[in-house]
């Protein structure tokens, strides 16, 4: 027996999926890996975040809270 794999985005080709679902020799497997459904831009931004963490380019919770408090106080003055 031969196995053929076709990667189809459900939202782009629903008619094709419905067509092949009715064939008795076809089995459909869902790929529940959410990462594979992300756009190139989303994957690129995730990688940038990972790179920032690895390079130490991060803020602590205390730093973020301090910056936010400072910014809120500046906005209140205006």
Structure overview:
This protein is mostly helical and 78 residues long. It has one domain (14-77). Helices cover 51% and strands 0% of the residues. The longest helix is centred in the last third of the chain and has 17 residues, at 61-77. The chain is elongated. The mean pLDDT is 87.
Topology diagram in text:
Elements: H1 14-21, H2 40-54, H3 61-77
**What Rg, in angstroms, do the CA atoms define?**
23 Å
**What summary fits the major beta sheet?**
none
Provide the number of structural domains.
1
The helix tally amounts to 3
The total beta strand count reads: 0
- The topology string of helices and strands comes to HHH
Helix percent band: 40-55%
Q: Strand-residue fraction? A: under 5%
Distance between the termini: 73 Å
Judged by helices, strands and strand pairing, the structural class is mainly alpha
Mean pLDDT: 87
Net shape: elongated
The low-confidence runs, each spanning 5 or more residues with pLDDT under 50, are none
Give the key terms.
single chain; 78 residues; mainly alpha
Brief account:
The chain is mostly helical. It has helices at 14-21, 40-54, 61-77.
């Amino acid at each position: 027996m031969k196995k053929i794999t076709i990667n189809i985005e459900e939202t782009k080709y629903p008619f094709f999926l419905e067509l092949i679902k009715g064939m008795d020799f076809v089995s459909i497997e869902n790929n529940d890996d959410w990462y594979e459904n992300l756009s190139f831009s989303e994957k690129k931004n995730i990688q940038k975040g990972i790179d920032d963490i690895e390079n130490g380019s991060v803020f602590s919770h205390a730093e973020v809270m301090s910056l936010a408090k400072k910014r809120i106080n500046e906005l209140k003055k205006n």
